Amino acid sequence: MADLISFVPPPTATPSSGAASAASLSSNFDTFLTILTAQIQNQDPLEPMDSTQFTDQLVQFSGVEQQIRVNTQLETLITATNSSAGASLSGYLGQVAEIDSAGAQFTGEPVQWRYELPSDASSATVTVTDAAGKVLYSKAGKLTAGSHEFTWNGELNKGGTAALDQPYWISVVAEDANKQAITPSHSLVTNITGVDLSYGEPALTTPAGVFAFSDIKRLMNNNTTAATN
């Protein structure tokens, strides 16, 4: 089986940004002191340098250094918070969760999706697409308003090859009696098998991929069953 696909958004900053900023500041400060020393050594004794400018620069360096220290402390706090969150998330292991995601990785086992129509439809088509948006499977969907289950076992449209171990997405196209488009919501129902703290936020591993903890909509009864496709 291929490695699990991550649906977690990449972090906006690396955990080592504080250390990198501190190293950059130190290098710039050393350069500043070298230049300042050379200027003082070569100044005109009759017209000595005005100390106001380099004093202002020293104050600016000090302010930046303090800000970097604050950022580093915040990063440490975030790391500690994530570790604490990881420990608390261990209680989710083995639970069935509904996740706010239309995407899921297929690994050979059926993928269980759920879609909800905000109103009755006169027509509805459920499709499974790949990352490029190519429709690989389609079938008629339910027409009544409310939540509906859709379990995909990797079946493809006639003439298609076997489904690969890769991510797929569910899409439901529906219209009402006036031929107006209805926008359904999509979610994934899967088991939580692990906790992953290697991302910028706590994440949960499932047979259908890795998802952010914030994407969990609700936990469900372990005895929940779904209709097949």
Fold blueprint:
Blueprint: H1 17-41, H2 51-89, E1 96-99, E2 103-105, E3 111-117, E4 123-129, E5 135-140, E6 146-152, E7 167-175, E8 181-182, E9 185-191, E10 194-196, E11 203-206, E12 209-212, E13 216-220
Antiparallel strand pairs: 1-9, 1-13, 2-7, 3-6, 3-9, 4-5, 4-7, 7-8, 10-11, 11-12
Short overview:
By secondary structure, the chain is an alpha+beta fold.
> How much strand?
25-35%
CATH class equals Mainly Beta
**Major sheet: order of its strands?**
6-3-9-1-13
Query: Number of domains in the coordinates?
Result: 1
Mean pLDDT across residues? 79
Task: Please give the CATH architecture.
Answer: Sandwich
* Radius of gyration of CA atoms, rounded to a whole number: 28 Å
Structure characterization notes:
By secondary structure, the protein is an alpha+beta fold. It has a single domain, classed as Immunoglobulin-like, CATH 2.60.40. The chain has two helices and 13 strands; from the N terminus they run H-H-E-E-E-E-E-E-E-E-E-E-E-E-E. The protein has helices spanning 17-41, 51-89; strands at residues 96-99, 103-105, 111-117, 123-129, 135-140, 146-152, 167-175, 181-182, 185-191, 194-196, 203-206, 209-212, 216-220. The relative contact order is 0.21. Residues 224-229 have low confidence and may be disordered.
Key words describing this protein structure:
five-stranded antiparallel sheet; Immunoglobulin-like; 28% helix; disordered C terminus; 229 residues; alpha+beta
